[in-house]
Design goal:
Oligomer: single chain
Radius of gyration: 15 Å
Strand content: under 5%
Number of strands: 0
Order of helices and strands: HHHHH
Distance between the termini: 43 Å
Shape: globular
Helix content: over 70%
Number of domains: 1
Amino acid sequence: MSDQKYNGWTNYETWNFKLWLDNDEKTQKWFEEKIKDSISSLSDKGKIKSIDKLSEILKNYAWDNVPIIEASFYSDIMTASIRMVNFREIATVCLEDEWRTLKVA
């Protein structure tokens, strides 16, 4: 299997999901709130718990917002792409950024 990194992310699907989290104002505000809600503590155990929590929230968000279309090549491609998103990577990067901000503040 070839290296499928895309713009510094695991793959295109992960990059694209994160892009849309950041580029839709309503979604961005929701996401920022979820980041703050997910922070347990700055300890390693707290960080893992926070990453797991935010990762699960993002995964549920993606699946809860899948448009309903009849079974077809397109529905299969759409769901396959969602399965490729590395929600944990997005959660880790965003929470690490937030923790860095908290340490500085």
